[in-house]
Amino acid sequence: MADRCYFFGCWNEPGHFLRESPGTPRLDHHERAKIELFGDHLHLDGSLAPRKLASYCGGGLCWGAQKNIHDERLSIDSRSDEYPQGQFLRHVLDNGFTAIQWWDRCQGDGRGACNSTVLFEGEHTTEEMIEALRVNFPHVLANLAKHGVELVEVHCG
Question: Which one of 67, 72, 74, 110 is most buried, counting C-beta atoms within 10 A?
Fold first, then answer.
C-alpha cells in the first residue's frame, strides 16, 4: 500500500483545510484529527513554518511547535516574524507523517499567517517530499511559480 499524502492549507480560497488529493472531498473530523494533530495535541496550522526570533530575544530560527506549553507557543508567535514565503522546514512528526511547511499567500488567501503543509506518511527526505507535492498537488507548485515563489529548505544551525 502506498504512503498517504495530504495537503493542509488554502485551496484556491480562504480557509485552511486538509485535502487528500485534488477533487477529493474533505475528510471527516475524526480522520482529520489523526493527521492534523501531533505531539501533545499540537495543530498543524502555522506551527511548523519557520520563524525568526527578534534580535532582542537572541535572534535565530524557530517555529511555533518548538514549545509544548500553549503560552510558550504564543510567546514565540508574538516575538518572531515569518520567514519569506516558500522557505520551509521539514519535520518528522510523531503521528506517522513527515511534513514540510511554509508561509504561503499564493493559494487563494493573501492574509498574514497563511501557510501550506505537505504531509507524507512515513519518514521521507526533502526530495521525496517535494516529489510527493509535485505528483499529488501540482497546482500548489503552479500557484507558487505564478507568484515567483520557490520552495527552499531552511536548515537549523
Answer: 67
Its pTM stands at: 0.87
**How far apart (Å, rounded) are the C-alpha atoms in residues 37 and 26?**
16
Query: How high is the pLDDT of residue 136?
Result: 92
DSSP 88: E
How far is the C-alpha of 133 from the C-alpha of 124, rounded, in Å?
Answer: 12
Question: How far is the C-alpha of 73 from the C-alpha of 1, rounded, in Å?
Answer: 36
Compute the residue count for the chain: 157
Q: Are 10 and 116 in contact (CB under 8 A)?
A: yes
Q: Distance between CA atoms of 96 and 104, rounded to whole angstroms? A: 24
Q: How far is it between the farthest Cα atoms of the chain?
A: 49
Q: In 3D, which of 141, 146, 50 has the Cα closest to residue 90?
A: 50
